[in-house]
Write a structure and sequence with these properties.
- By secondary structure, the protein is mainly beta.
- 9% of the residues lie in helices and 47% in strands.
- The chain has one helix and ten strands; from the N terminus they run αββββββββββ.
- The strands form two sheets. Strands 1, 2, 4, 6, 9 and 10 form a six-stranded mixed beta sheet that branches. The chain has a four-stranded antiparallel beta sheet with strand order 3-5-8-7, with no helix packed on it.
Length: 144
């Protein structure tokens, strides 16, 4: 392989690691919150939440407005209270971006509006015994 191609491959791999993520051990009912685009086959619940497997977020959508600037709480629930680990990814940019998502406990996250308006998404992935058992998606809209 030529040197420019190797550099492009390395840059592509590093770019795939960009964004924010958080690894959280989960016990009994698990933790939640933040990114990647789900496939078109991601199930959508009656309330519009997107998930795969046994993890759920409440709420799964947050709107920051001038009349409701937050912060807001998000609860993570694992069906059947299975022990495992939640890994959280997001493209929200923190307080200088659209929103900052912070773990409070294994089952609770705090979401604060950032300095920018726009929409972002957080993905919570649940692992049990090293096996991916589910994903849930949090959509955040900041119009403050």
């Amino acid at each position: 392989m030529s040197k420019p191609i190797i550099i492009l491959i390395a840059a592509g791999l590093l770019a795939g690691c960009a964004g924010s993520h958080q690894v959280v051990p989960a016990t009994n009912s698990a933790a939640t919150t933040q990114v990647s685009q789900p496939s078109a086959q991601t199930p959508v619940s009656p309330d519009g939440c997107r998930y795969i497997g046994i993890i759920r977020l409440t709420p799964c959508k947050i709107d920051f407005t001038t009349s409701s600037p937050g912060p807001k709480k998000v609860t993570v629930t694992i069906e059947h209270h299975v022990n495992g680990t939640v890994v959280q990814h997001n493209d929200c940019g923190g307080l200088t971006g659209i929103a900052k998502i912070t773990r409070v406990t294994n089952t609770l996250y705090r979401v604060r509006a950032g300095a920018m308006t726009g929409t972002c998404e957080a993905r919570f992935v649940f692992f049990h015994n090293g096996s991916r058992e589910g994903e849930a998606f949090l959509k955040v809209n900041n119009s403050v």
